[in-house]
Amino acid sequence: MSKLTQHLPNSFVSNNGHQQKLTEDNLFFEEQALPISILDDFKSAASETQYEISYNTRRAYQTSFNIFSRYCEQHGLNTLPADPRSVISFIGQQKELINQKTGAQLSKQTLTTRLAAIRFFHIQAGFHSPTEHPLVLRVMRGLSRNQLRVTSDYDQQPILYDELELLIQTIDNQKQTLTKARDKAIIQLGFQGGFRRSELASIQVSHVNFLRNKLKVRLAYSKSNQQGHKEWKDLPEAEPFSAMSAVKLWLDESQIKQGHLFRSLSRDGESLRPYFQAKSDLDQDAGVQKNSGFLRGDDIYQIIRKYCHKAGLSSDLYGAHSLRSGCVTQLHENDKDHLYIMGRTGHTDPRSLRHYLKPKD
Question: Are 357 and 338 in contact (CB under 8 A)?
């Protein structure tokens, strides 16, 4: 082993300490010995692997893999690498679980996430993934066609102008000025821009530009833009329930000048909580100082559910995704064509809109 590979950075090491393989079956040329003088350069480049998937995805994978690990430990099975038959048995156990909140079985999407986590950690450790075994694939294909399973999959209903007006009236009943300003900005911006909750949470003050007749919001990254390509949303001030004045009021009231746009508030809703953002996901994982003072996607989800409940809208049918769905549906009701709608929401395939567009009244 070369001096360099003896000092691989943490991002190249799996949970069980195995070093990720840099070569496979000797397909790549390998120096006999690498000089220690390039160690810092190597570490600098290797540290970029922390961004190959998002922090939230990595956190979800870790949770799912922990569930698989506990199952293997319970039955005396090897976790990493795992036998494909262990994975099949795990699927059998998981598919019969009942969600205590909904009384339904776990959805296929949840099970797919479990397998994606197993695959991710096997590849990270340099192992062939057992999830790619033909028998595992056959089980999942059969699961997706099994109509006898009772799952809680449902489409969140779109929030349109009528529902949006109810939500804003409910927010206006708030006594706290900061809470009222922030939550109206979240609701109106989420609706007009067709943002996902994770996108709303990631918007920075520097991403927002107030022009003469529109609000321009830069989206640094999104589900369909993982590479950080330039992406803007132009939100006209003339549209009903335009977010322009609501966002401007929130910035005026909060006096936020930089960092995340949407912040956490004190319990009484009268002040901002202390704000800190780690320089990288690794710094956050290291626990030097936790990210604090700004809203996450789950926080926005809970805020929207809260106001839906207060406004008399079923929180089981309406959620954060209802804003994005409502944006698409309302623009369709307003006779906007598919290209215009895709430009607003960031969809890259017009076929994706079929899931959102509802028949006009």
Answer: no
